[in-house]
């Protein structure tokens, strides 16, 4: 895994420093869309020389390099995702959790919609979709907006 991380960093034009490797690895193995603080808490024992400020700076560099994505949630907190495949997020307001969702049909419908609208002087490079809601009892009737 470390060699793969070094290659990804190098391919993105970044030096494969120990702090970058550690932060990026922690994000890759997480399925929780962690905050910078959560990443820091998970790595600080084994990496006492890496500060919370360094984690924030590293995450900004990784986002700018296109290696990870920033996911802003309704509470205003910043979450990070190393999954760069096209996908959306479902955010639960009650539990403050994010989960990935994949739906090629939905993204196809969105692409077709904008293709038909023929936006002038604008090319869509990316579609990000986040659903906000809350988990409910599976036996209850759920109203959609």
The assigned structural class equals alpha+beta
Oligomer: single chain
Strands of the largest sheet, in order across it?
A: 4-3-5
Q: State the end-to-end CA separation.
A: 43 Å
Number of strands: 5
Helix content: 25-40%
User: Could you give the order of the helices and strands?
Assistant: HHHHEEEEHE
What ranges have pLDDT less than 50 throughout 5 or more consecutive residues?
none
- Measured on Cα atoms, how large is the radius of gyration? 18 Å
Fraction in beta strands:
15-25%
Major sheet, described briefly? Answer: 3 strands, mixed
Tell me the number of helical segments per DSSP (H or I, 4 or more residues long). 5
The overall average pLDDT, rounded, is 90
The coarse overall form would be globular
Structure, briefly:
About 40% of the residues lie in helices and about 15% in strands. The protein is built from five helices and five strands; from the N terminus they run ααααββββαβ. The strands form two sheets. It has a three-stranded mixed β-sheet with strand order 4-3-5, with no helix packed on it.
């Amino acid at each position: 895994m470390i060699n793969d991380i070094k290659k990804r960093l190098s391919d993105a034009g970044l030096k494969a420093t120990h702090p970058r490797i550690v932060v990026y690895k922690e994000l890759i193995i997480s399925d929780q869309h962690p905050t910078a603080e959560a990443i820091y808490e998970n790595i600080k024992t084994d990496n006492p020389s890496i500060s919370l400020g360094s984690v924030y700076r590293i995450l900004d560099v990784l986002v700018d390099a296109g290696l990870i994505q920033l996911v802003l949630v309704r509470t205003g907190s910043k979450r990070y995702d190393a999954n760069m495949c096209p996908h959306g997020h479902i955010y639960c307001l009650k539990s403050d959790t994010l989960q990935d969702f994949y739906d090629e049909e939905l993204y196809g419908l969105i692409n077709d919609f904008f293709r038909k609208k023929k936006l002038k002087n604008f090319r869509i490079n990316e579609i990000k979709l986040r659903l906000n809601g809350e988990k409910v009892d599976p036996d209850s009737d759920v109203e959609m907006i």
